[in-house]
Design brief:
InterPro entries: M60-like_N, Pep_M60_3, Peptidase_M60_dom, TCAF. Pfam families: M60-like_N, Peptidase_M60. One of its GO terms (cellular component) is plasma membrane. This protein has 561 residues and is α/β, with parallel strands linked by helices. The chain is built from 23 helices and 21 strands. It has a six-stranded mixed beta sheet. A five-stranded antiparallel beta sheet has the order 11-9-13-7-15, with no helix packed on it. The chain has a four-stranded parallel beta sheet with strand order 2-1-3-4, sandwiched between helices. The chain is globular, with a radius of gyration of 27 Å.
């Protein structure tokens, strides 16, 4: 890194008469430059006597001065990573809010939140250097307008990712960005959105995938009117948004350590706008509105069965705000961790009611009425877990109470094994989606599963007779703690303890029948194989590692022996 920094500073000093100023937070850099004959000094702030200024990217207090400094010919060496900022500011784009990007945006540069694995990287080849965002965009426009253009698939795939990132940068005050936004609007208004679906996927390096990404990003960043224009081309529903305000009361207390979603029971149709209103006190509490629950980012997927990003968040820092999302979705209020707001009234105009059953609150008569009248495409079943599934699947559920009471028992067992209070401070969520970012299911908030798994989530008879493994496995992942994990060996092992526990203690299904990998012959074979190899640590994972815990349990059955 030393030679690189020296070369960078020498390049910046070319033709400059002033000295190099190094921010006081970079003392080692100042020493390095001095040792190699560069005149430099430690400076607490940028000043007019400098020809080059070196600083970190974690403060934007001098953003305007730095921008003017560069505009007048000064050299700026600035560096930092934005992934930590992104992790600490969920719902905020680092390309818009990270301090370094506030400084850099008018220079046509931004620091992305992605990371790279450590290693050596080759000097870019001429082929790699041939890609340029604006050039690729011009070729893309030619393809959309005339059906011909010379844009390689690798460039098209990169344009899709770069375009989505670019559209997160606020265009205000930067004429070049405003011009590009205008060009993109014109391009997309003249083209149809691809009808992507499970039955009609598109390749990630296709024109269709690029249109999906750019349309989503532009609709979020530029104007709700564009979302409305494009959204009407994808919506086949006969639903119409309510013209009358709907007021819902949400729980504003969040004693947990993480933000959590509060369901409103409302759905925003594709491309429509909703007006969200709340009190001044609530508007100053850091609440957010989220449209949609399918939060997996499919940017790296090879094929797309939906757009890469289909949710959108807005900060509710005003008493009234218009929100929209190209793809529509269930509406949530996000309550930050540690808030004690009590009941909060939220008034929403422009949404429709979605099916929503809450155990202990919703009557069977009310549920039947909802199934006839609330025809939004997605609905929710709520207890101490919340299941989000297609309405078409809910229509076959005449009485959700039995299956939700079973889920309540299973969730209580999950908490008991994790030694956590029940109900959870933040209810777990399981969301079905046409496509997810990894595996058949994956843990997180929310837990994501494929549409094919919906039936096992809501079929009480099946759960009691055949057991339930995958969803409990993911709930187990969410309970894992670093203090008692031996990563990476036990990551996919200890989570299965919850599956075994719930199947045995709630569903009455012994471990030998709960999963084929736990049949006595399979367990015996696995132990012999592992010992026959000398019990190498590298092979102690998943089922082999689980065996260690199960052997302990054979002497002390779930703490009762």
């Amino acid at each position: 890194m030393g030679p690189f920094l020296l070369n960078a500073v020498r390049w910046l000093t070319g033709g400059q008469t002033g000295k190099v100023g190094v921010n006081t937070s970079l003392k080692d850099l100042c020493s390095l430059l001095s040792e190699h004959g560069l005149e430099c000094s430690l400076e607490p702030h940028l000043n007019s006597n400098l020809g080059v200024y070196c600083c970190k990217a974690y403060s934007d207090k001098e953003a305007k001065q730095m921008q003017e400094f560069v505009a007048e010919g000064g050299g700026l060496l600035i560096g930092g990573q934005s992934w930590r900022w992104a992790s600490q500011n969920p719902g905020h784009s680092p390309l818009a809010g990270f301090p370094g990007n506030i400084i850099l945006k008018c220079f046509g540069l931004s620091i992305l939140p992605q990371t790279l694995s450590a290693g050596c990287f080759p000097v870019p080849t001429p082929e790699m250097r041939s890609y340029h965002f604006c050039k690729a965009l011009s070729e893309f426009q030619a393809i959309l307008n005339h059906g011909n253009g010379n844009l390689e698939k690798r460039c098209l795939a990169k344009l899709r990712v770069d375009g989505a990132a670019f559209l997160q940068i606020p265009a205000e005050g930067v004429p070049a960005y405003i011009s590009l936004h205008g060009l993109l609007k014109k391009m997309l208004r003249g083209s149809a959105l691809p009808a992507v679906s499970r039955e009609n996927p598109v390749a990630s390096d296709s024109i269709e995938a690029a249109v999906l990404s750019l349309a989503t990003g532009l609709a979020h960043s530029d104007c709700s009117q564009l979302a409305k224009e494009l959204g009407t081309r994808t919506c086949s529903s006969n639903l119409y948004p309510s013209k009358h305000p709907i007021t819902v009361e949400i729980e504003g207390n969040n004693p947990g350590n993480n933000d959590y979603w509060v369901s409103t029971g409302l759905y925003l149709l594709e491309g429509q706008n909703a007006e969200v209103s709340l009190s001044e006190a609530a508007a100053s509490a850091g609440l957010k509105v989220q449209i949609g629950c399918h939060t997996d980012d499919l940017t790296k997927a090879r094929k797309l069965r939906r757009a890469p990003m289909v949710t959108h968040q807005c900060c509710m820092d005003r008493t009234s705000q218009s929100v929209s999302c190209l793809w529509g979705g269930l509406l949530y209020i996000i309550v930050p961790k540690g808030r004690q707001l009590g009941p909060v009234s939220v008034t929403i105009t422009g949404a429709v009611h979605a099916p929503y059953y809450k155990l202990g609150t919703t009557s069977i008569e009310e549920w039947k009425r909802q199934m006839q009248e609330n025809l939004a495409p997605w609905g929710e079943l709520a207890m101490n877990n919340i299941l989000t599934v297609p309405t078409t699947k809910l229509q076959a559920l005449e009485n959700p109470e039995p299956v939700l009471r079973l889920w309540d028992e299973m969730t209580q067992a999950v908490a008991r094994l994790a030694a956590q209070p029940f109900p959870f401070r933040r209810p777990e969520r399981i969301v079905a989606d046409v496509q997810i970012s990894a595996g058949w299911m994956h843990s997180g908030y929310p837990i994501m599963c494929r549409l094919e798994s919906v039936q096992e989530l809501i079929n009480e008879t099946s759960m009691r007779s055949r057991g339930l493994w995958g969803p409990i496995h993911e709930l187990g992942h969410n309970q894992q703690q670093d203090g008692w994990e031996f990563r990476p060996h036990t990551t996919e092992a200890t989570c299965n303890l919850w599956s075994v526990y719930v199947n045995e203690t709630v569903l009455g299904i012994p471990r030998s029948k709960a999963h084929e990998a736990l049949s006595p012959p399979e367990r015996e074979r696995r132990i012999k194989d592992h010992l026959g190899k000398g019990a190498p640590l590298c092979d102690w994972n998943v089922w082999t590692a689980l065996e260690t815990y199960l052997q302990v349990l054979s002497r002390n059955s779930w703490g009762r022996g």
